[in-house]
Design brief:
A hairpin with a 3-residue loop joins strand 2 and strand 3. It is globular and about 45 Å long. It has 11 helices and 10 strands. It starts with a helix and ends in an 8-residue tail after the last helix. The strands form 2 sheets. An 8-stranded parallel barrel has the order 1-4-5-6-7-8-9-10, surrounded by 7 helices. It has 256 residues and is α/β, with parallel strands linked by helices. It has one domain: Aldolase class I (TIM Barrel). Helix 3 crosses helix 4. It is 38% helix and 17% strand. The structure holds indole-3-glycerol phosphate. Indole-3-glycerol phosphate (IGP) binds next to strand 10 and helix 10. One of its GO terms (biological process) is L-tryptophan biosynthetic process. It is an enzyme of class 4 (lyase). Belongs to the TrpC family. Its EC number is 4.1.1.48. InterPro entries: Aldolase_TIM, Indole-3-glycerol_P_synth, Indole-3-glycerol_P_synth_dom, Indole-3-GlycerolPSynthase_CS, RibuloseP-bd_barrel.
């Protein structure tokens, strides 16, 4: 079986080598994602993604009007908007993120494969307020360095894990926001059970998000009790009415 993650990372090294070194500015002022989670424990929160294509599916919605899509998410009351900026495998662009961040009043997540501080600086300067760090992409020391750099700039950091070993690393670096990806980045197989299997290992005082393969309220309900939010791309990109679709995913949570 071909390892997709290795392929993506090899390409990313080339992309980052060409990336100019920027001086970090201020993080865009918006009510933070974690603050939004704290305020709304009774409802599953949604991070809605702008995703034109993916290596597993190919084209999802190549001609999407990125701004209209993001606005429809904002209208639905999502807690954050994720914008894919990888050009090669996901047909994204940093300009997509810039456009969205300039025009919405919610946190924006720069979804990419971050391996270098330059990408984090570019994210903050483009209006992102959250960056993704994927444990499977990084040595623990580099993960810690990038995590500390991002938080020092005032960014929120979503640390993505796939299994118990990676979750232990996320806990060790003291990540507050942890995403469990239901998609195996090596094989691209998706199983929501991935999120559920790690529930016994969750720690108090951290916020857990279930990522990928959430297609409808049926899947949202399965993770709603043990996760504070879901990260959803494909289903919203393919729906004719993304506002209604994103609203329907914000199912009730029962908190005592
Ligand atoms: O389109 P889906 O199955 O709803 O998944 C969204 C999101 O979780 C997925 O795009 C994703 C999760 N982690 C990533 C890391 C890189 C690229 C993409 C991703």
């Amino acid at each position: 079986m071909e390892n997709f993650l290795e392929k993506i990372l090899a390409e990313k090294v080339l992309e980052v080598a060409q990336m100019p070194l920027e001086i970090p500015g201020q993080v865009r002022k918006v009510k933070g994602f974690i603050e939004r989670l704290r305020e709304n424990p009774q409802q599953l929160q949604v991070i809605a993604e702008v995703k034109r294509a993916s290596p597993s599916l190919g084209a999802i919605n190549l001609d999407v009007d990125v701004l209209a899509q993001a606005k429809s998410y904002e209208t639905a009351g999502v807690s954050a908007i994720s914008v894919l900026t990888d050009p090669v495998f996901f047909k994204g662009a940093i300009d997509d993120l810039r456009l969205v961040a300039k025009n919405v009043d919610v946190p924006v997540l720069n979804k990419d494969f971050i391996i270098d501080k330059k990408q984090i600086t570019r994210a903050v300067n483009s209006g992102a307020t959250i960056v993704l760090l994927i444990v499977a992409c990084l040595a623990e020391k580099d993960l810690q360095d990038l995590y500390d750099y991002a938080t020092s700039l005032g960014l929120e950091v979503l640390v993505e894990v796939h299994n118990a070993e990676e979750l232990a690393i996320a806990h060790r670096i003291n990540a507050e926001l942890i995403g469990v990806n239901n998609r195996n980045l090596k094989t691209f197989e998706v199983d929501i059970q991935n999120s559920l299997d790690l529930v016994p290992l969750q720690e108090k005082e951290r916020f857990y998000i279930s990522e990928s393969g959430i297609k409808s309220p049926v899947e949202a309900e399965k993770v709603a009790q043990d996760f504070r939010a879901v990260l959803v791309g494909e289903a919203l990109m393919k729906d004719g009415n993304p506002t209604i679709a994103a609203r329907n995913l914000q199912v009730k949570r029962h908190v005592d």
